[in-house]
Structure formats: C-alpha cells, structure tokens
Amino acid sequence: MDESGESGRPRSDGAEGTRPRGTAGSSEQPAPAEDTPEKATRPPRDEPDRPAPADRPDPTGPHPQPPTEPAPTGPAPTTPAPAERERAPYGPGERKKAQVAPKARKGPGGGLLMGRPFGVPVYVAPSWFLVAALITWVFGDQLDRVLPELGGVRYLVSLFFAVAFYASVLVHELAHTVAALRFKLPVRRIQLQFFGGVSEIEKESETPGREFVLAFVGPLLSLVLAGIFYAGMRAVEPGTVPGVLLAGLMISNLIVAAFNLLPGLPLDGGRMLRAVVWKITGKPMSGTVAAAWVGRALAISVLIGLPLLNQSGALGGETQDIGGMDTVTDALLAAILAAIIWTGAGNSLRMARLREHLPELRARTLTRRAVPVESHTPLSEALRRANDAGARALVVVDPDGDPMAVVREAAIVSVPQHRRPWVTVSGLAQDITEGMRVSAELSGEELLDTLRATPATEYLVVEDSGEIYGVLSAADVERAFVKAMARPS
Length: 489
Fold this sequence. Notes:
Layout: E1 2-5, E2 112-115, E3 122-124, H1 126-146, H2 154-182, E4 187-193, E5 196-201, H3 208-235, H4 241-260, H5 268-281, H6 284-312, H7 325-357, H8 363-366, E6 370-374, H9 379-389, E7 393-397, E8 403-407, H10 409-413, E9 429-431, E10 437-439, H11 444-453, E11 458-462, E12 468-473, H12 474-486
Helix pairs in contact: 1-2, 2-3, 2-4, 3-4, 3-5, 5-6, 6-7
C-alpha cells in the first residue's frame, strides 16, 4: 500500500542498566568521584584533537575526557535509548547490569517468509490470516446471493479470491520494489499485512522526480491489473464463478489504486504530493510536512465520511438506517483506517526529522580517548593509566602496538574492586573484527549503517591513514541520537 524508507531508523531493544558510582582507578587507592558537567566530557565539535605523539605505543583518540564519567555501554544503535541517562564512574564494589550486544534489527510484525523475488524477502504477517478469513466470510455471503447453487463450495471460492486479491497487492508492492532497486535504493523486505502491504525501502530518494516515480508505479500497476481483469471478465460468461471472481478482482484493484492515490502520507498519493512540494520549494522536509498534514486531514475525513457515505448508499450499497449493526461495522472500519493513516503520517514526520538531524552524528566528535594496554596488564593498572591519561576506554595491543581487542566497559564494571588487581584485561576484551574498525570521517546515515552491519558495544575508530583515533561506544551514539531528535526541526 505504501513504501517506507527506514534508513537508520532505530528500534528499541536495549536494556536499562544500573549506574554504579565511584571512580575508575586502582583497587588500592580509589579516588573520589567528581561531578563533571556532560558537555565537559565531550571533545569540541569544531576542533577535534589529534592522536597523541607516538613516544609510546599509545595511539589515542580525541581530547581527553575525565575518567570519572565513563558513559554506559549499550546495544548497537539500531534504536535510541528511551531517555537520557546520567553517566556515572565505576565505583568500588558496585555493579552494573551487563548489556548484551543486540541482535540484528528485525522489521515490525514478523511473519512467514513466502519467497525472495528480486532478492527481497516477502513476509505474510499473522494479521493477514485474520483479514483472509474476513474476506472469505464476506465474499462468501455475496456469492450466495449471486450463485446460490454453489452451496458450501462458495467459501472455497471466496478463499481463492482472498489469496488472489493479496497476490495483486504483492504485485503492487513489487512495483515499488523494482523501482527502488532500479534507483539503487536497498529494500529490506515486503510485508503483507491486514490492510494491504508495505515495501520497506531503507533510503530516501535522491530527487523529487525519483520519489514521484517510486510512489506512482504502485497505483499504476494496480490500474493495469484492473484492466487485465476487466478484459478477462469480458472473455468469460457473466454469472459464472470465473466471471464473478474476475469482476471482484477488477473492482478491488480499482479501489486499491484509488485509495493509494489519495494525496496524504503514508499513502502513495501522499508521497507524490511530497515530491511535488519538494520540487517547488527545493526542501524535502517542506514536502513531508505538507503531505503529512494532508494525511492527517484525510484520516479525519475517512473517520467521519466513510460511515456517512455507506449509510447514504453513495458507495453502491443500499441506504442504511442509523443505529443498525452495519453502522457499527462501518464506523469500526473507518476508525481503523483513520488510525492507520494518522499514525503513518506522524511516522513520516518523525522519519523526516530523523534524516534532517542524522548529519549531526559524527564519529569524530563522539569518540572516546583510549589508552593502549598489553593483554597481560591487570585491570587495576589499566584503569590507573586511563585515569592518569584522562581516557575513558582501553584498547588491547600486541608488543608492536597494533590493536587486537577493545575492553568492554560492561565487563569492567562487572569486576568487583578487590578483584581488579588479579584480573587481566585480555579476559574482558572483545576481539576487533573488520567490521569493528570505523573511520573517523563517518557521519550520519553512513555511520549508523556501518554500526548496524556489525552490532557491538564498542568500536575502534581509526584515521584514513590507519592510525588509531579512539573508541566509539554505541551508547554514545544513541545518546547523541536522542538529543538530536529532541531538538525541533
């Protein structure tokens, strides 16, 4: 029914952790913690510090930050944390819940995998079976009036109609998918749901012209299918099972095309309106705002107008008396449709605001200063060095100074203070894989895509020359994401 661009859109699967208080350091003389303002722990955006001189195997990251405020680790930034959380330093004898690296993001709703046309997985949501049963029941009653001789077989014919109708919806969504792939826009999946289908396109169209084409091809294919079914209906005898089925499919595809051409997000017509406003103003955000508010007005119109049209017989049925069961059914259907349109319009606005603020997420400004330590170094000694250097991360290096692993903050806080002199950093580190090496130049959507491809709690940030810049925490990216989204557009 519509296509959604979910680029970098997060999904919440992170767990809240208790924040211990105290300070990082050796177990013998833990220094008291100091309350340091949040902004003091961040390197300046406009003047990123360079790595420290290589007079020791200590390639470090950005400007030193007070070790008394290490930020909590969290899941990879598939979703921003629900709220801002104060940072607190490690403290003696205190623990924080260990946070597990998140699983790969899953699309909403789940469902049964039906195939992979053009390499894109197609899922049928559980809600489809409910609507299939509803269509089978309603269309079966209509068949009983048109073809009473069918008897109970009419429900098998009705079930076939339900499957054929959603096959038409799939063709509608495949049109969006093929157009997106043609424009080199990745499509995560297609999902058939209660009220139609959705093509989950991960990136935004680069031009308003492409946006218009991408939205228009779906209703266009529905109109083409309606024409094909009309031609087939003319070729068979009226009043037969094939004739009734073809007529029903023709009408249903006309309804799908007409409904999706309504000029309001999240419908295809709304995306076409967005493209037109984008072209006129030169601002995609202006197009989104206009189409989203038209979508909300459309939702109110559906909520009020659809029951009135059904009762008046303007949609082809008989005039109904207000207060009957049919009136309640019409009102319920209108409420569901209006809620879907209203919610989709709001989601489109939030997605536009997300894309507007994504460039503010820069790996260089979010990276923590790191201290290199060898694998046999006791944790207490490593934390003492970090405190002395004003660093907030540990990188395990080999004797030549080449990085091998990143020490996980969640693992550090799980070690009691009195045990730290006897625990080496190698037992708390995560080996650095190729996907955990992040360029310091990454920002915005490209940064989120890189982190999402390799879920982890910490990443090694390197310069283009290969020199270590520091360690990037997924929790820091989430926190920056939340702050950016909280600011008005």
